[in-house]
Design brief:
Number of helices: 8
Distance between the termini: 35 Å
Structural class: alpha+beta
Oligomer: single chain
Radius of gyration: 19 Å
Shape: elongated
Largest sheet: 5 strands, antiparallel
């Protein structure tokens, strides 16, 4: 998140049919923002989830925002947030939650910053869906500040598969994800095996799990 002009981030799992709950946050303010929105049932996070589109609020002191979120806007300002950006997590028809970013001062995201924020939202989607396929079935999550490392290992594994399979990076990622799903394993664990050469993919055969780690 260091590349973005924000002070912190929070991630919440959300559902139309079941209870929603905060998963992780980078600091006390982001934790308060997640709790506030899910408790009050209003705010950019709630709107982003319901409408399936990003809600960008560069300044919570804007009059129409205070009218739109009567309770949340004031509570968020009191908590120390001035700008909030809510990005829905989506993969096809699946919408597992929302990534919230906040700043202590008024700020607008330029085109490049918004693109970076959306990339982090895509990554958070993978993290959240990956947690749900954990073998234990528990609500395991990756702290928001660790998303970069998580992404780097998956990118590295996908790059290795482009060589092993002779395919493009997007197809390599699809194959990596499909294998993790079929084996009931977390994507991060499969990526780690590929990077460590414990798992090798072949164009013509099923992936081979090495016994000796080579």
């Amino acid at each position: 998140m260091a590349a973005l002009p924000v002070s912190g981030a929070g991630l919440s799992a959300m559902s139309r049919t079941g209870p929603s709950h905060p998963l992780c946050s980078t600091d006390d303010i982001s934790e308060q923002l997640e709790e506030l929105q899910l408790t009050l049932g209003e705010g950019p996070c709630v709107d982003a989830f319901l409408h399936g589109s990003a809600v960008l609020t560069p300044d919570l002191l804007t009059r129409d925002l205070q009218d739109r979120w009567v309770v949340f806007a004031e509570a968020a300002l009191e908590a120390g947030a001035r700008a909030v950006f809510a990005l829905p997590l989506q993969m096809g028809a699946i919408s597992p939650g929302v990534l919230d970013l906040y700043a202590r001062v008024p700020v607008r995201l330029n085109a490049d910053e918004l693109a970076d924020a959306l990339a982090f939202a895509d990554l958070a989607t993978l993290v959240l869906l990956d947690a749900r396929t954990d073998e234990t079935g528990g609500a395991r999550s990756v702290p928001a500040e660790d998303l970069g490392a998580y992404r780097a290992e998956i990118d590295q594994a996908s790059g290795i598969l482009t060589v092993q399979l002779g395919v493009g990076i997007e197809e390599a990622f699809v194959r990596l994800r499909a294998y993790a799903y079929a084996q009931g394993r977390r994507l991060a664990d499969v990526a780690a095996d590929v990077v460590a050469r414990r798992l090798r993919f072949s164009p013509d055969t099923e992936p081979d799990q090495a016994d000796d780690g080579t």
